[in-house]
Amino acid sequence: MLPARLAQDVAGLFPYERRQWALGGLAEQYSRNEPYPHILLADFLDTEIALEMAREFPQPVTQAWTQYKHANENKLGMPRRELFPALLGAVTDELNSPEFVAWISQLTGIPNLLADPMLEGGGLHQSERGGYLNVHTDFSQHHFRPNWHRRVNLILYLNPDWDESWGGSLELWEKSAEGKMTRCVAKYPPLLNHAIIFTTSEKSLHGFPDPLTCPEGQSRKSLALYYYTSEANPGFASHSTEYFARPQDGWTKSAMIWLDKKAVDLYSRAKARFGFSDEVASRVLGWWSGRK
């Protein structure tokens, strides 16, 4: 049940009126930002709503979290909408609503976007001390809807007292014509009520590759939504999440990133073919993480 002070605001969780008048300028900024189309929207929601979302964010101890712990990432995920607390669920539904998806289409210039009710790969994410996510481009095709082409990411951060010295800034990297990372062009700390929206493509390299140094008991929290277009005859090359070594990464780390990337690709292909969820892999990774 939502707190009484917020109950009246549920119908207007996203400030359409405030955002709509500036949409033309935001869309222009989105298209011009480097190294690929993206935008940071501070004060994305009402501040009290974002604070309440942070307060009700599930603790990492529950078994409902999926373990994403391997060489290229160390984080937790919860894609099952039915497990979300009340306000987190209501905001998720709003950001998947036809009205909001139409707004995202106008912002990004990508028509006919579709929300993903399965929250495949998205939903609630958090990383504790030592957590990281190596720089990568995202999977291009929905694992269970073969004609769905992933086009846009939205990440809303829910960290009220985040100290930037703890790390965790989302890094956006430039990619050379040869397919190698060249430099970090933009960095955005995961501050409360800040949303990053960006076009998902083979150029959209992003991540937070350095392990978090936040105190024990703190975590980097976010809500992630992905948007797709339906392609009857997909003209894009399907690929799984592809990780990249940074120029400063040594040979050993670069080799581990490459080997793990190949393992993730095999897993993703098997997942799409046989239709299994991430829960089995999560239990294995959680068991292995506990042994180390």
Task: Explain what you see.
The chain is an alpha+beta fold. It is 30% helix and 26% strand. The protein has eight helices and 13 strands. Strands 1, 2, 3, 4, 5, 6, 7, 8, 9, 10, 11, 12 and 13 form a 13-stranded antiparallel sheet that branches. The chain is globular and about 50 Å long. The model is unreliable at 284-292 (pLDDT under 50).
The percent range for strand residues is: 25-35%
CATH class: Mainly Beta
Quick one: CATH superfamily?
Answer: q2cbj1_9rhob like domain
Radius of gyration: 18 Å
Helix/strand-derived category reads alpha+beta
Order of helices and strands: HHHEHEEHHEEEEEEEEEEHH
SSE arrangement:
Layout: H1 4-7, H2 16-20, H3 23-32, E1 38-41, H4 47-56, E2 66-70, E3 73-78, H5 86-95, H6 98-108, E4 114-115, E5 123-128, E6 132-137, E7 148-157, E8 170-175, E9 181-188, E10 195-199, E11 205-208, E12 219-230, E13 242-243, H7 251-274, H8 279-291
